[in-house]
């Protein structure tokens, strides 16, 4: 049997684990830490023209002040939908409308809200860990098939150790990112 058939594609597993980490970073960017950021609105989807649309595709998102985000909605008929999407997003922001401009004043975070946000960050991290473990399971399934196809016991052990090392490294990155984000959130 050729070596290509036996080997597990570690580069593919690494790429998929890195993808889970990139998704986690994007989710962390959407968590507000008391200062305004245009990225906090990235996960907000607006029901526009009959389908969910990212907010940055229906208007311009700006940060004119450290505690203010504005959304300049291009289509006046969508102002209500954008406002509703922001209200229901769970960001804890009360939008104020002025024509086609929606202003989002970012309130100072209180201790209770900071604790809630650290829990949300922990949930995001757990989703990333689950995604990484799913990639690991796929790699182990590939190894089982290869073993059934004639891979030696020693080779199977070496490859499964490699997959486990990738998994451990990726989960360690998730834990580090979570710790950093929680410290950032709790910082007054």
Please explain how this structure is put together:
It is a single chain. This protein has 188 residues and is an alpha+beta fold. It has 2 domains: 3-28 and 110-186, Ribosome-recycling factor (Topoisomerase I, Chain A, domain 4, Orthogonal Bundle), CATH 1.10.132.20; 35-105, Gyrase A, domain 2 (2-Layer Sandwich). Helices cover 56% and strands 15% of the residues. It is built from 5 helices and 6 strands, in the order H-H-E-E-E-E-H-E-E-H-H. The strands form 2 sheets. Strands 3-4-6-5 form a 4-stranded antiparallel sheet, covered by helices on one side. Strands 1-2 form a two-stranded antiparallel sheet. A hairpin with a 2-residue loop joins strand 5 (96-98) and strand 6. It is elongated, with a radius of gyration of 22 Å. It comes from Actibacterium naphthalenivorans.
SSE order and pairing:
Elements: H1 3-6, H2 10-30, E1 45-48, E2 51-54, E3 59-65, E4 68-73, H3 79-87, E5 96-98, E6 101-105, H4 111-148, H5 153-186
Antiparallel strand pairs: 1-2, 3-4, 4-6, 5-6
Helix pairs in contact: 2-4, 2-5, 4-5
Based on the model shown, name its key terms.
188 residues; alpha+beta; Topoisomerase I, Chain A, domain 4; 2 domains; 4-stranded antiparallel sheet; 5 helices; ribosomal large subunit binding; cytoplasm
Task: Give a brief description.
By secondary structure, the chain is an alpha+beta fold. Helices cover 56% and strands 15% of the residues. It holds the Pfam family RRF.
């Amino acid at each position: 049997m050729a070596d290509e058939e036996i080997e597990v594609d570690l580069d593919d597993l690494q790429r998929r684990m890195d993808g889970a980490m990139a998704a986690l970073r994007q989710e962390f960017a959407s968590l507000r830490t008391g200062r305004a950021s245009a990225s906090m609105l990235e996960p907000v989807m607006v029901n526009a023209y009959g389908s969910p649309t990212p907010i940055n595709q229906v208007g311009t998102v700006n940060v004119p002040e450290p505690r203010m985000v504005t959304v300049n909605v291009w289509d006046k008929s969508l102002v209500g939908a954008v406002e509703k999407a922001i209200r229901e997003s769970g960001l804890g922001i009360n939008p104020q409308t002025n024509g086609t401009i929606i202003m989002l004043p970012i309130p100072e975070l209180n201790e209770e809200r900071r604790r809630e946000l650290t829990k949300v960050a922990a949930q995001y991290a757990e989703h990333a860990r689950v995604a990484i473990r799913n990639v690991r399971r796929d790699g182990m399934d590939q190894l089982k098939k290869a073993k059934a196809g004639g891979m030696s016991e020693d080779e199977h052990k070496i490859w499964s150790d490699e997959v486990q090392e990738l998994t451990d490294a990726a989960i360690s990155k998730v834990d580090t990112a979570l710790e950093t984000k929680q410290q950032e959130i709790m910082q007054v």
